[in-house]
Design goal:
Layout (H helix, E strand, L loop, with lengths): L9 H36 L4 H4 L1 H13 L3 H8 L1 H21 L3 H15 L2 H12 L5 H29 L4 H4 L1 H15 L13 H20 L9 H23 L13 H31 L4 H6 L2 H17 L5 H19 L8 H26 L8 H39 L23 H33 L24
């Protein structure tokens, strides 16, 4: 087994391991959202349509969906440290290729490879952290590590907006170079290797069926709203392939002596509860990340940088929530922390249901801060309890599945709530327009602004814009209401969690001293 470089003491060494694996986690999680802001600039620079440019995002998430489930098997064959080094090196190099791309097909191809190399970064780093610290310190360790996972999607739009506006869309990808180099040095210096298991062959049929199913589902969720869902044959075919692939995977796994994913994973009650809660938390996290930038920029007409800065309190709230968890880990029942986090997140969303076109910046800041604190309180206890009763040998594989489920939650949340917004905005506009008529006494009122007069074409154009903005505002409020109710609806899942056994605290960490 490869030895990591010695440190002054075990506690310092564990902290260095955590910091080393947190860097690629930040790099990967930021990259999920950072390119979204740069997409209009990419579209203009590479002479692409909006639909064509969207493949820059789609290719990335599909590659992640395909490769992530295989992380456990690859770590067993290659060793966790070696796989980590390959993943970070490949991700950094393909990031540079993305920044140097001269055409859209080149960029989409490089993004596909970037997603493939980046797929294992989060499950590998999570497994390393869990094995490095003894169970009694998992809460504190996951709080430090979770900063990268939770803060990345939040600071991504802000960083992407800044780099795109003051430099170029290419800088969005080049920013990964210094982070990738530091991550490589940290892994080489501090992360130990694991034993390799060459006896376990790859269940190729199971992997293929699951990969096709997840990739098609990701494609449907990512492209569905743009293609008008089931009105497009590509979405119908994608759904059919996802269902058929999953059916074959389940049928094959029930009959194969060594299926692609170990069945023991799905017999663990805490792991299943953690999957469902992690899925729900990422629906909320990414839905609001997708909805707020257009709300701030298009509806409230804030500049890109201002809207990005308004995300900072949410990141601060997440850090506060994780700091609280790190202090209370092992002292307070994790179910209590998750429950309190869900209630605070729901309260933050409730405040967002009161937004209007005259909403003040401080109201946006307060609601974002509360939502961030709630998510910070939820994320760490859910991650910790999900793996609290899993054997160490299953942690990397379990972390891969956990990452896939969170990714699906993010994709589903973005897809469903953006679709709800678009359709509700159209329905609201139709309902409002029905009242814009000379027979409505309100349009005869003496206090009516001249620009709303129905007698002039210029006034009709101005009035149409007012109706559009009101229709969109109502649609945003409706989305925030649905998210609030969904957050409250998952509270019963908390009671499925079994607190970690005290006996598990004696399990030694995997780091070699």
């Amino acid at each position: 087994m490869t030895q990591a470089a010695p440190a002054a003491n075990p506690e310092t060494r564990r902290l260095l391991v955590n910091c080393a694996v947190m860097l690629p986690t930040i790099m990967h999680s930021v990259d999920i959202t950072i390119a979204t802001v740069a997409l209009p600039s990419i579209q203009g620079a590479l002479s692409a349509t909006q639909d064509q440019a969207a493949w820059v995002l789609t290719a990335y998430v599909i590659a992640i969906a395909i490769v992530t489930p295989a992380t456990g098997w690859l770590a067993g064959r290659l060793g966790r440290r070696r796989l980590f080094l390959i993943a970070v090196t490949g991700f950094t190099l393909t990031s540079m290729l993305c920044g140097a791309a001269q055409s859209l097909p080149e960029l989409v191809l490089f993004r596909l490879f970037q997603g493939g190399f980046g797929a294992g970064l989060i499950p590998l780093s999570q497994a390393v952290v869990l094995d490095t610290y003894p169970p009694r310190e998992h809460g504190r360790a996951m709080a430090i590590w979770g900063i990268g996972v939770m803060a990345g999607p939040i600071i991504g739009p802000t960083l992407g907006g800044y780099l795109t506006e003051f430099y170029s869309w290419r800088a969005v990808f080049y920013i990964n170079l210094p982070i990738g180099i530091l991550a490589l040095l940290g892994i080489l210096a501090f992360v130990p290797d694991t034993a390799r298991d060459h006896s376990r062959a790859l269940d190729l049929f199971g992997f293929g069926a699951l990969a096709i199913s997840i990739a098609c589902l990701q494609m449907v969720l990512d492209r569905g709203e743009r293609l008008d869902w089931f009105d497009d044959p590509k979405i119908v075919i994608g759904c059919a392939l996802a269902i058929v692939g999953f059916y074959f995977y389940v049928a094959h796994s029930l009959t194969h002596h060594r299926p692609f994913l170990d069945p023991k994973l799905f017999r663990d009650r805490n792991f299943i509860a953690g999957l469902m809660l992690g899925f729900s938390a990422h629906v909320c996290l990414y839905s609001t990340v997708a909805l707020l930038p257009p709300f701030l920029q298009n509806l409230l007409e804030y500049p890109v940088l201002t809207s990005g800065f308004l995300f900072i309190p949410r990141a601060i709230g997440t850090l506060i929530g994780m700091a609280i968890v790190s202090r209370l880990a092992g002292k307070v029942d994790p179910r209590v922390l998750i429950l309190v986090g869900l209630l605070i997140a729901a309260y933050g969303l409730w405040q967002m249901t009161g937004f209007t076109l005259e909403v003040e910046p401080h109201e946006i800041v307060v609601s974002g801060l509360l939502l961030g604190i709630g998510l910070g309180l939820i994320f760490v206890p859910v991650s910790t309890t999900a793996f609290s009763s899993l054997p160490r040998a299953l942690r990397t594989e379990g972390a891969g599945i956990y990452a896939v489920v969170r990714s699906l939650g993010a994709s589903l949340g973005i897809s469903v709530f953006v679709t709800l917004f678009v359709r509700n905005a159209q329905a609201n506009r139709s309902a409002l327009v029905e009242n814009v008529t000379p027979y409505n006494n309100l349009f005869r009122a003496p206090y009516l602004p001249p620009q709303w007069s129905l007698g002039h074409s210029e006034s009709l154009s101005s009035l149409s814009r007012v109706v559009d903005r009101q229709a969109e505002m109502i649609a945003y409020v409706w989305d925030f209401q649905v998210l609030m109710f969904l957050t409250l609806a998952v509270i019963p899942l908390v009671f499925l969690i079994t607190p970690p056994k005290k006996a598990a605290k004696s399990e030694p960490p995997a780091v070699q001293e």
